[in-house]
Recover the amino acids of this structure.
């Protein structure tokens, strides 16, 4: 059976029923368009959030602790003996031989590593705010964080130019009414507070970071911590943040210290995203499925109207599945044009949404809605839609073409 | 020796339902190549049912239909469709032309479905058929732009398109005026005279009388057979032939 004939009959059917065809195409276009918009919007906001998250924090953080409690000397010596109330051995805090570890990691790491000292501090400038203080090496920091590019005032290297220089977030600066060049008191809960100079202000985009994170040189952090020479964090930045979990596992296996990827650190958040993705996919699938009901209705109507044609085509010797294909081709024609219009509609909707700005409570800024433009959205929505159309056409077509031609011919007599 | 185009043996068609009904009840029949066979009978006698069985539109409950030497009782529905496409041409009481297609496109339909000719050959043949049936000027018209007689002639041209061995016509003049009836019957007669087999169901006794043979069906059985025309002896001999030849 020549495909040209089937195409020709199918085209004749759809082109002589302009209103029905347009309704079918409109249904598909709406489904595809809104699916693309939803996908772009949901994925855009998610990717934007993750990008900010990943940019703000190290991809892998090696911490001064181990996942399992270290074995005590008594356990090692007397493994078979149950001993209670044995005092744990207090190790000196910090990562041992950090330089050697970093040299070793750099030999295979797809990225870079920098040492830091993490401690807590209180910034006092009229009001007192507890913050996380990270002592960094400005020369190495540029390799592992985007702090340098997030600076609104001052530079990372300015930390070395002033005695007890610190870099604070914009939100904290606003909270404490601190300006670039001001002096604040920095305390660690015990001892005399240290006078520190604000040599830089940064803005990461994440409010909790901008309000609760400050940076200083490693030496100042160690002083506040009361542990000279200690390094209690190694921070890794990778060329591809996606492989962070794999790298963290490798690093931990190599050096023994707990290595936390950004995925692990935000596992609760990512789990929420997974749930949200599932919900969004379900809604989008339902939208496409619903849009295919228009196709189902139209093909049902056409097959009903064309019962005589079906009978005559079968009586002429056209095979049942060939006749069935005519109606599936009709649905595919409507679906294809509908998908094309849906793609255009989807793009326009995405563009329209991207022009809208909203206040982001997370960043505290008014930003445009983030839209993720991906060919996959167009391909997937088109493929699912054409499949739905074909399935929607198959059932009425099968029912119609199964009718015995004699029944219809007799009915017409 | 006269060749047999169509032969049926012990043909039974029974409809199962709340009440079982036998439409065709044990018919044996041989139709010679080039024969014009008319089937007559009262309404509900089973003549159309017999015709649908002969044209493979319907499958018998029992018995065998042999078309040009090919037994068909064990063929699948797809194979039966292929036989219909190449060996049978159908004309119905209602023209059953595809409404959105022109006369030419309707005639092209079976040829395009068979897919055995080039586009030019198909167009040439369709034009030639329509012209020979007096529709040379109507080829671009759709069915709703044609008269009843013209539509039926287009349906005849469509039935002839694939050069089938057998033309099966169910009351082809049932909806036509006298002039158109005469014209269509004349065409069918010419088709038979040119060597193709024509089997027609009709209520019109006068027209049936012009066939080579008339079988009268009552209650699904052949009640009476009448031979006529110039080929009377030849057809009568073929009717008694048990062997089917291609």
């Amino acid at each position: 059976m020549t495909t040209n004939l089937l195409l020709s009959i199918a085209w004749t059917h759809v082109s002589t029923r302009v209103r029905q065809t347009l309704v079918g195409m409109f249904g598909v276009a709406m489904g595809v368009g809104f699916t693309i918009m939803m996908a772009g919007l949901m994925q855009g906001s998610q990717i934007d959030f993750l990008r900010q998250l990943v940019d703000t924090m190290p991809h892998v953080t090696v911490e001064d602790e181990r996942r399992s409690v270290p074995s005590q000397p008594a356990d090692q010596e007397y493994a078979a003996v149950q001993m209670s109330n044995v005092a744990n051995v207090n190790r000196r805090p910090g990562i041992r031989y950090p330089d050697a570890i970093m040299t070793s990691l750099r030999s295979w790491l797809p990225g870079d590593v920098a040492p830091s000292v993490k401690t807590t501090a209180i910034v006092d400038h009229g009001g007192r705010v507890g913050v996380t203080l990270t002592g960094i090496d400005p020369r190495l920091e540029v390799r592992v964080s985007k702090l340098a590019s997030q600076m609104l005032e001052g530079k990372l290297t300015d930390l070395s130019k002033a005695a007890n220089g610190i870099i604070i977030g914009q939100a904290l600066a606003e909270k404490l009414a601190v300006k670039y060049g001001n002096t604040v008191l920095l305390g660690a809960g015990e001892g005399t507070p240290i006078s520190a100079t604000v040599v830089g202000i940064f803005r990461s985009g994440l409010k909790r970071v901008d309000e609760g994170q400050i940076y200083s040189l490693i030496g100042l952090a160690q002083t506040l911590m009361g542990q000279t020479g200690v390094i209690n964090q190694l921070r890794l930045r990778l060329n591809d943040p996606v492989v962070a979990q794999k790298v963290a596992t490798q690093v931990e296996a190599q050096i023994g210290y707990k290595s936390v990827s950004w995925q692990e650190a935000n596992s609760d958040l990512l789990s929420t995203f997974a749930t949200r993705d599932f919900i969004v996919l379900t809604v989008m699938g339902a939208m496409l499925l619903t849009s295919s009901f228009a196709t189902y209705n139209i093909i049902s109507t056409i097959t009903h109207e064309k019962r005589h044609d079906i009978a005559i085509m079968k009586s002429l010797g056209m095979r049942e599945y060939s006749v069935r294909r005519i109606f599936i081709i009709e649905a595919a024609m409507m679906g294809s044009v509908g998908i094309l219009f849906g793609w255009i509609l989807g793009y326009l909707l995405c563009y329209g949404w991207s022009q809208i700005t909203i206040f982001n409570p997370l960043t505290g800024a008014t930003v445009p809605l983030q839209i993720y433009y991906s060919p996959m959205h167009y391909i997937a929505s088109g493929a699912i839609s054409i499949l739905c159309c074909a399935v929607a056409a198959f059932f009425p077509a099968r029912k119609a073409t199964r009718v015995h031609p004699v029944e219809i011919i007799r009915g017409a007599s | 020796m006269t060749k047999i185009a169509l032969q049926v043996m012990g043909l039974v068609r029974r409809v199962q339902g709340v009440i079982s009904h036998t439409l065709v009840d044990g018919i044996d029949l041989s139709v010679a190549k080039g024969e014009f066979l008319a089937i007559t009978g009262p309404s509900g006698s089973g003549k159309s049912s017999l015709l649908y069985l002969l044209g493979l539109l319907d499958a018998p409950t029992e018995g065998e239909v042999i078309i040009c030497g090919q037994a068909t009782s064990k063929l699948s529905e797809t194979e039966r469709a292929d036989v219909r496409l190449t060996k049978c041409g159908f004309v119905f009481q209602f023209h059953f032309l595809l409404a959105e297609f022109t006369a030419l496109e309707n005639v092209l339909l079976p040829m395009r479905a068979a897919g055995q000719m080039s586009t030019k050959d198909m167009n040439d043949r369709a034009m030639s058929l329509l012209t020979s049936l007096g529709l040379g000027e109507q080829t671009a018209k759709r069915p709703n732009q044609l008269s009843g007689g013209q539509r039926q002639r287009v349906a005849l041209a469509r039935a002839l398109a694939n050069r089938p061995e057998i033309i099966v016509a169910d009351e082809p003049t049932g909806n036509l005026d006298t002039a158109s009836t005469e014209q269509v019957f004349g065409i069918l007669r010419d088709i038979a005279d040119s060597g193709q087999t024509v089997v027609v169901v009709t209520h019109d006794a006068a027209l049936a009388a012009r066939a080579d043979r008339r079988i009268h069906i009552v209650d699904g059985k052949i009640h009476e057979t009448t031979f006529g025309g110039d080929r009377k002896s030849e057809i009568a001999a073929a009717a008694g032939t048990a062997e089917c030849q291609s």
User: Anything to note?
Assistant: Chain B has one domain: 34-56+75-229. The longest helix of chain B spans residues 178-193. The interface with chain A takes residues 48, 52, 55, 57-58, 77-78, 81-86, 88, 90, 92-94, 96-101, 109-110, 112-115, 158, 170-171 of chain B (CB under 8 Å). The longest strand of chain B covers residues 4-15.
